[in-house]
Write a structure and sequence with these properties.
The chain is mainly alpha-helical. It has 15 helices and two strands.
Length: about 350
């Protein structure tokens, strides 16, 4: 046995006999707010500027079923971190197992959305927090009653005063959750590494072909799903049906020209956020590509860019491959976004 081997076994024996635990390896924690390369800085409104304590309080509230009438549902019940904060069901169940009426969208990059809900009727993220609370088929509750619950909790009292210098109330609840949700920034997919970080070997040949096709005039996908967040936030009809049970933006405006128009969703992490469309009626990326390839059902308000595309089997496969490249694994596995409970 040479001297190096002897020293190794001496150290091993010493560590085994020692009462002191071996030091844990140093691991740098993920920043709570990390803006991806190529992204603008998110805007935090006056009075709800980002801070660690506000983020901590918002994260707790996001995962806490205390927000629902029977304490059975939380924000995270319908917005699952491992699925890019979307759901796996067409309609998410609320309290008493009541069925939702629209597919739960991903919350990735909601910091950049100019308005909320699929008809765009809510102007701020803080106001959007109220929507699931008061909807009868979601939380079916009242934010004033939620505040009463939180005021009986010493930890929520402490965090609320530290974060907003006031007891937990409607102001604190909406601001804290919005602060946490604005930190849900996703921009480290393989597409981002290729496009923004200029790494040349991260996309396959099929993904590169699909990317070129996606942004080409043959498909015009990028006209609605462009920009760093893969959406222009406009309201469109994509010809999913000839007649829609859901009136879409008409529900907000009452204007006939807005019937069956819905906000264009972001395609980031789209491989994880199915089923798709406002009603969760398309089960897969292949089904989405086939829908657009077919040209839609011919609704009167259908966007003119939705037309028969004549894509080959290879082209359809390449588009699906490209959509998979938009998955940000670091985002869905970020420990900051897991439940604190």
């Amino acid at each position: 046995m040479n001297w190096k081997t002897r020293i190794f076994f001496i150290l091993l024996l010493a560590s085994a006999c020692s009462k002191e635990p071996l030091p844990e390896p140093s691991v740098e924690p993920e920043p709570l707010l990390q803006v991806p390369v190529g992204f603008p800085d998110p805007v935090f409104p006056e009075g709800n500027e980002f801070s660690e304590i506000r983020w901590t309080l918002g994260r707790m509230l996001f995962f806490d079923p205390v927000l629902s009438r029977d304490s059975s549902r939380s924000c995270a019940s319908c917005h699952l971190p491992e699925y890019a904060f979307s759901d796996t069901l067409a309609f998410s169940p609320g309290v008493d197992n009541a069925s939702g009426v629209r597919n739960a969208p991903s919350l990735a990059n909601v910091a950049y959305h100019p308005y909320f809900t699929r008809e765009g009727g809510v102007p701020t993220l803080e106001m959007q927090i109220l929507v699931p609370i008061q909807e009868h088929n979601e939380f079916d509750f009242n934010i004033l009653l939620i505040a009463e619950r939180l005021q009986r909790d010493s930890l929520y009292q402490k965090l609320s005063w530290e974060a907003y210098d006031r007891a937990p109330d409607h102001f604190v609840i909406t601001r804290a959750i919005a602060c946490f949700e604005r930190s849900l920034l996703s921009g480290n997919s393989r597409y981002d590494q290729y496009y923004f970080q200029e790494k040349s070997n991260v996309l396959s040949a099929a993904e590169l072909r699909g990317m070129e096709l996606f942004f080409s005039e043959k498909t015009n996908c990028g006209d609605c799903h462009g920009g760093f967040n893969f959406t222009n936030y406009s309201f469109q009809n994509n010809g999913l049906y000839e007649e829609y049970a859901d009136p879409g933006r008409f529900r907000l405006t009452g204007l006939e020209e807005d019937r069956a128009l819905f906000k264009v969703p972001s395609l980031r992490n789209v491989a994880l956020t199915g089923p798709y469309m406002h009603d969760g009626s398309l089960p897969s990326l292949e089904a989405i590509v086939e829908h657009y390839n077919s040209g839609g059902k011919g609704h009167p308000h259908q966007n003119a860019l939705v037309r028969p595309l004549g894509l080959s089997e290879q082209e359809r496969s390449d588009l699906v491959a490209f959509l998979h490249s938009l998955t940000d694994l670091a985002f869905v596995h970020n420990p900051n976004y897991s439940s604190p409970f």
